[in-house]
Amino acid sequence: MIEVMFAVRKDGFKDHVAVEDELDKVEENDQYTHLLTLDEAVNGEDILNVFKVDPEFAENEEKYKTIKTDILEGDSSDSDASGSGSDNESDSDESENEEGEKMEIIDQTETNLVALRRTIYLTIQSSLDFEEAAHKLLKMELKPGQENELMAMILDCCAQMRTYEKFFGLLAQRFCMIDKKYVAPCESLFQEQYETCHRLETNKLRNVSRFFAHLLFTDAISWGVMQYIKVTEDDTTSSSRIFIKIFFQELSEFMGLSKLNERLKDVTLQEFFDGLFPKDTARNARFAINFFTTIGLGGLTDDLRETLKSMPKTTQQPVKEETAESSSDSSSSDSSSDSDSSDSSGSGSGSDSSSDSSSSSGSSSSSSSSEDEKKKRKKRTNEKLKVNRKDQQNKDRPEGQQNKGRPEGQQNKGRPEGQQNKGRQEGGQSRNRDRNDVTSERKSRRDDRGNTREQSEKRNRLDDRQSRNERMDARDRDNDRRGRDRTEREEGRRR
Asked: Please, which pLDDT band fits residue 459 given cuts at 50, 70 and 90?
């Protein structure tokens, strides 16, 4: 206790002030002090503590009021004299304060924003679970408009991780469940991240897609965000397809394919799912079906397949015309090559093709006027295709089936009498030679493989023997060293 008193005295009684600042209203010059010593005899006037009735109370009160007014009026006159000069100064100070209040200072360096993001990051990283993190972040008392920064920081922390952690999805879910003002920032972040997913790395893209899949599975945000996704060849990139793939695979893992299909078939949400299953053209519908089947979710496209079957076939006519034109070009080139290599029959077909080409050239001049000529031209090109295909098939067929499908009298037409079957015999001999060569090569390969296996087994055995011998030698050496050490120790002890 004495040490505490000396410490208080040494500090100069900082914690025990004689007069508080709020009560120290009288200046030092106006103060009346009384110095008393312990040796002096002091009259305490204890009689003042005793109540006595004053018969002249009213008169004394009036005297006190007059004295009070005289003192206060004198002080006020002095203050008026001095205050006249200070009014101008106060007016000028007030005007300056008003001007300062009107001026708004905008911080372009965003130091406050950086400090906020730093505190959010440190709070998240220092928390053991998502509930503790949510409790600490709610204690920060964010200003209006800072909810976007909070949700963006949670998403950035999730994207920076090597693998997806469910901690961040649960944290964002908790905020969306506590207050609906955090739902709109999450939905705007979904749109922003999907539109700029080509800037993200594969690891970040995976974490972001799984983060939003968790929010949708728990109904923390609305399924209306699906309206930003359009599964077409023109509206998607490689990055966006990866995003959609991971996103829907995560949803199917959480919900199951049947529940996910039921949710996607909900009547109240069909306006948001038009981009996922486009039905405007057969090309887009086919692309969506192929995309979902490749990622293992073909069961979601049953309705789209039915609509594709019921679509009119007129939408597929331009593609068929293009294929017909390309096939006619290829057939013309094939017919020209066949006409050069063929004999009398080939010359006949060449004459037919020349007549057809002349007729086609004549009809091309009037194709703009009539559609019948176009149909005739298509028929002629199809007939040429059939003839050329038959000739090519006869060339590729085996010996006994080369002239199958022709009349008996025209099978060897255009060849000399002695050479009609000569080519067949030569072809059969060459094929037999090739087969013999192939069988001999296979036998030699098998023998080589057997020899190599035997040699490898012998080598392995020799290696095992050598390793065993080396181990035995090493053990003998170790035993010799140990025996020497023991003898040296015994000799040392004897000495």
From this structure: confident
**Residue 35 — pLDDT band, cuts 50, 70, 90?**
confident
pLDDT tens for 325-380 read 444 454 444 444 444 444 433 333 333 433 343 334 343 344 444 677 777 777 77
Which residue is it, tokens 């030699």?
A: 444
What is the gyration radius of the CA atoms in the chain, in angstroms?
52
Residues 6+ apart with CB under 8 A from 420: 412
Residue 87 has pLDDT above 60, yes or no: no
Q: Which two tokens stand for residue 440?
A: 């001999």
16 or 406: which carries more pLDDT confidence? Answer: 16
Please check whether residue 303 is in contact with residue 264, taking contact to mean a CB–CB distance below 8 angstroms.
Answer: no
pLDDT at res. 355: 39
pLDDT of 165 > 70? The answer is yes
Annotate 239-261 with b (16+ C-beta within 10 A) or e (fewer): bbbbbbbbbbbbbbeebeeeebb
Distance (Å, whole) CA 247 – CA 297: 12
- Position 5, amino acid: M
Residue 440 pLDDT grade (very low, low, confident, very high; cuts 50, 70, 90): confident
Residue 66 tokens read as: 């007059």
